[in-house]
Design goal:
By secondary structure, the chain is mainly α. Among the domains are: about 365-430, no CATH class; about 435-505; about 810-920, no CATH class.
């Protein structure tokens, strides 16, 4: 053993000596110790057992990146490249991975030079992993390449670096490497460039793509069919089919024949821009040159023709495709089936489906859905459901969209029970309903006015963990607002916020509109502020809703402030906004300002529409300025707006109000001739004739009302009201009977007219009978009816029943002076005021302000009835609600009553005409 070790030591010593003699000149520029170490390693690398020799020496302690670099540099043409790679890996392990960048470059070039491309690739991957900058790698690689003449014949290493970057999707670096090598005079091969161009296209790196292409042209490379195809594809991707076609011609002129892929790219580009006829011509041109269209060619053309809604021609292309024994994909058939269904050609769509199945293609739920939708839109729900059942039998799983299509269709036509059965089946099949499923039910019940059931579906949806989409939230909130339950609408809004869904402007607009319509403008303003706080800008609908609300309350100043605010926020008012302002000003009687707004519309870049004209014309009619109203109506055609039924009805109503009967009749006949007369038109004229006492003419007009303009409840109410006011109750009863025979439901206005008529005649039994009949029909009595009933009971002496009705008035917020003062007077006269005293606070909270005379009557009544000790408490209540001045005493009130000798006379409250009240109802 000792002999063997001595012999091995001698060999090492001899090898070192020989190596030193041969290699001494190669290490002239290396510092002394490193030079010596590099010499030792170079000598040992020539031995097969170099690894053992290195490990058993002191070299590992002397190793450094410079030493490794020197060894690789001096031995790149001497030592086997794989041994150099093994040495490099060994040194990596010893040095902990620290290496000189040039070491990687030398090794990569050496490996490439010996066709060891896989390990060379590994070298580049290692360099990228270490995070070397692309320019540093480029500089190192070029420098090492230029230093060795043996490398110059194989510059493949440069391409491997570009590929390394490309494979790691480091496309910016890949292009930088390409440009760097090109500028150094080492342009990569066309194959390398084509691969890079293709990757850049896939990654939508258009700018980099054109840099590489320009670099190829500058290097005067011989472009091949793949290069041209890539460039044509780039043009087509940005819809530049003009240059794509130009390049197609250029490549042919240069002797580079386009292949099938090239033509397919151009055909796809043409179809993408909608020039499908040209695409079809190109396909035929391609065939003339001996190229056979493939599945992709036909699929592209079918898709293109379908998008242009030319499904019949697309079907012919499919027939040609199958005649060539090309099996269309499920996607292609699906596109055509969808297009045929959308064009209403359901039969052809089914034929395509049958041919698809016969050709061996397997349809899926996506393909069946348009056919199901087609049947649903045609109202053929049984056929749609049969399709779903057939799918199950064929092992094709219907998805949620298939069921949703049927459920939504059934809900839209009100076949809600069938829709629920579909839902049950869907769940039995383990398909969970989604937001669209629930939305269909919610939408139907909302439209039907059944918000209670709509709400049940909504909360069930949340309980199941199905998040409602914006459409569902909007539907349920809009439903609550539409039917007056604003509090519940806000409850849904709060739930929406709880699950992290932020309301959009549309939702806030619906809430603001509902609040404004209900007169809750302060609350609407608060919601508007919340909208601002969330960084949202109200839209024109939201602002117009608020402006309209303020206008309806007669607060035009606030409406104009909002108009200024919306303009400052950059929201342009619409004609609807100005119509609301004009309507509000007309309602408050400010016609001069309304006209000012009207005249300023054209300066805002808007034009008055029919609503604008009808609103201001109606305003002039109501103020009696018929001349201006007619002048504006005559102006309308010259402004491109034809007077419609609203304008004519406004003029007709104005003429009737002004007693211009002949003018009204002339307008009426004109409306009949123009076929724009409506039941409202007849009612307006009938009301005008009744007010002038021309009842016989009014009745003749009713007889002339046809099926097109049948009399409605307003027609009969006008006539009944006229009869009641004139005391001809038999005729009123006859009309009331005719009304019901025509299946017309009497309204509160109809009953009020009759009750007033009998009340005037003192027929209390008939008054009570009509009241009971009205309540039995579910018609809610209003303040006028209650007033009449209380007065009738009072006159009959039934104060207990009168007080019961009075309490109903309090509960319903209908308390008014006439009723209360009548009762207070009667109770005080009879000394029955204990109940009244207990209700004083409730009267004040209802907002009723009794007259000073009533307060005096009450004070005297308390005094006479022996309730003088209650006077201070009653007086305190009167002062609290500002009924009397706090300077008045109970004695002052009693004295005032004694001086007057009576309470203020009570008269019937002013009342609109039956026609006006009926119209408002």
């Amino acid at each position: 053993m000792n002999l063997l070790l001595s012999k091995q030591a001698f060999v090492i010593k001899k090898a070192r000596h020989v190596s030193f003699c041969i290699e001494s000149r190669r290490f002239a520029n290396i510092p002394g110790e490193n030079k010596s170490t590099a010499e030792e390693i170079s000598a040992l690398l020539k031995h097969k057992n170099w690894n053992f020799l290195l490990e058993s020496s002191g070299i590992p302690q002397k190793l450094s990146p410079d030493v490794v670099h020197s060894v690789l540099d001096r031995n790149k043409l001497v030592v086997n490249p794989k041994r150099l790679l093994d040495f490099f890996d060994w040194s990596n392990h010893k040095l902990g991975g620290t290496q000189h960048i040039d070491s990687f470059s030398i090794l990569a070039l050496t490996l490439c030079n010996s066709n060891n491309f896989a390990p060379a690739n590994h070298m580049f991957d290692e360099m990228l992993q270490r995070g070397y900058a692309v320019m540093d790698i480029l500089s190192s690689l070029v420098k090492c390449f230029k230093e060795c003449d043996s490398f110059s014949s194989k510059p493949v290493a440069f391409e491997l670096l570009i590929d390394a970057y490309r494979n790691k999707r480091m496309l910016n670096e890949a292009v930088s490497a390409f440009l760097g090598f090109k500028n150094e005079g080492f342009p990569p091969s066309v194959l390398c460039c084509n691969t890079l161009l293709n990757e850049l296209l896939k990654g939508n790196k258009t700018e980099l793509f054109w840099k590489v292409y320009e670099g190829m042209l500058e290097s005067e490379m011989s472009l091949d069919v793949y290069t041209y195809t890539n460039v044509i594809n780039a043009y087509c991707k940005v819809c530049n089919v003009k240059d794509a076609k130009r390049l197609l011609r250029v490549m042919e002129e240069k002797g580079c024949s386009p292949n099938l892929v090239t033509y397919n790219v151009v055909i796809r580009g043409l179809c993408g821009t909608g020039t499908v006829d040209e695409a079809l011509e190109l396909k035929e041109s391609m065939e003339a040159k001996g190229l056979v269209p493939d599945i992709y060619t036909y699929s592209t053309l079918i898709d293109g023709f379908c998008k242009k809604k030319r499904s019949r021609e697309a079907k012919l292309i499919l027939v040609e495709m199958t005649d060539r024994n090309l099996v269309p994909s499920a996607y292609t058939c699906g596109v055509l089936i969808n297009a045929l269904c959308n064009s209403g050609d359901l039969c052809q769509a089914i034929l395509v489906l049958e041919k698809m199945i016969a050709a061996g293609a397997r349809p899926n739920a996506i393909i069946y859905t348009p056919i199901i939708k087609g049947y649903v839109e045609d109202g053929k729900f049984d056929e749609a459901k049969k399709i779903v059942q057939d799918m199950w039998q064929k092992g094709i799983l219907p998805d949620i969209l298939c069921y949703n299509t049927i459920i939504t269709g059934l809900c839209k036509v009100g076949r809600i029970d069938e829709a629920r059965m579909c839902l049950v089946e869907m769940e039995r099949r383990k398909l969970r309903p989604n937001s669209y499923t629930f939305a269909a039910f919610i939408s139907w019940y909302r439209e039907a006015g059944n918000m209670q059931v709509a709400e049940q579906y909504f909360w069930e949806m949340l309980d199941r963990g199905v998040a409602p989409n914006y459409a569902t939230f909007t539907s349920i909130i809009d439903g609550y607002c539409k039917y007056g339950n604003i509090a519940q609408a806000f409850s849904v809004l709060n739930r929406m916020l709880e699950i992290g869904r932020l309301p959009n402007v549309q939702l806030y607009g619906i809430l603001i509109n509902a609040l404004a319509k209900n007169g809750k403008l302060s609350d609407a303003r608060s919601v508007l502020s919340e909208l601002y706080n969330k960084g949202l800008v109200p839209d024109v609908f939201t602002y117009t809703s608020l402006i309209s609300g303020f206008c309806k309350q007669g607060n035009s100043e606030e409406a104009f402030l909002l108009l200024d605010e919306m303009c400052q926020k950059g929201v342009r008012p619409s004609i609807v906004t100005y119509n609301a302002l004009i309507g509000g000003l007309c309602k408050s009687g400010d016609l001069s300002r309304a006209r000012e707004v009207f005249d300023g519309i054209s300066g805002k870049g808007l034009a008055p529409n029919a609503v604008t004209y009808s609103t201001i014309i109606d305003g002039y009619c109501k103020t009696g300025d018929l001349n201006e109203a007619f002048r504006l109506s005559d102006e309308m055609p010259s402004q491109g707006v034809q007077p419609d039924a609203f304008v004519y009805n406004a003029l007709l109503h104005g003429c009737c109000r002004a007693g211009e009967t002949e003018k009204a009749l002339s307008l009426f006949h004109e409306m009949v001739e123009k076929r724009i007369a409506s039941t409202l038109t007849f009612n307006t004229l009938i009301d005008g004739l009744c007010k002038l006492g021309r009842m016989s003419e009014a009745l003749e007009l009713v007889k002339g009302m046809s099926d097109r303009h049948p009399p409605d409840h307003v027609t009969f109410t006008i006539l009944i009201d006229y009869c009641c006011k004139n005391g001809v109750m038999k005729e009123a009863e006859d009309l009331f009977q005719q009304m019901q025979e025509r299946k017309l439901i009497p309204t509160i206005v109809t009953y009020t007219s009759l009750i007033q008529g009998y009340h005037r005649l003192g027929d209390k039994l008939k008054v009570f009978s009509l009241f009971e009949e009205m309540v039995a029909r579910g018609i809610e009595p209003d303040e006028v009816v209650y007033s009449l009933m209380v007065d009738a009971l009072y006159r009959k002496g039934n104060l207990h029943k009168a007080f019961s009705l009075w309490n109903e008035l309090l509960d319903k917020g209908l308390l008014k002076g006439h009723v209360s003062e009548t009762l207070v007077q009667s109770w005080c006269e009879k000394g029955e005021i204990s109940a009244l005293l207990a209700s004083l606070n409730e009267i004040g909270e209802q907002g009723f302000v009794p007259s000073l005379a009533m307060c005096s009557t009450l004070a005297q009544g308390l005094d006479k009835a022996g309730y003088s000790e209650k006077l201070p408490m009653a007086l305190e209540t009167m002062v609290k609600f500002s009924w009397i001045s706090n300077s008045l005493t109970s004695n002052d009130l009693i004295t005032r009553c004694q001086m007057d000798g009576h309470t203020e006379s009570v008269s019937n409250p002013p009342k609109q005409s039956a026609f006006e009240v009926a119209l408002q109802a």
